[in-house]
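User: Fold this; tokens only.

Assistant: Input:
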Amino acid sequence: MTDYMLQALTKAKDAARQGEVPVGAVIVDRVSGEVIAAAANRCEQDHDPSAHAEIVVIRAACKAKGDVRLFDCDMYVTLEPCAMCAAAISFARIKNLYFGAYDPKGGGVEHGAQFYNQSTCHHAPDVYGGINEQECGDLLREFFQKLR
């Protein structure tokens, strides 16, 4: 497991403790290796259905860099992004997307809309799925089992 995915998992665990779906994301500067921003889901806390970890971390990274584009950045996220988040990643021009667990039901990268395969997609990051898939998936399964 990379240190960056470990940081994303830490954020996801923090989200679970707050009653949020446990997804965490980290954006890294590819040149320096510096973590620019890290975030977790905040939908419940913010009363905002768009406050997925990916959206929250993109907003924070853009603010930190003072730009709407994150050309030389990579994202690490614990769950395959949904179509909304895949679009935001594209619009932010993130270079590489690394994700943990696959999401056959709600994913928008390898499943569902497969946003980056659409002719209307202007930028597709290089995608690497299944990074520490077991731990990322187990965290989500345990969270939802406790709700039932």
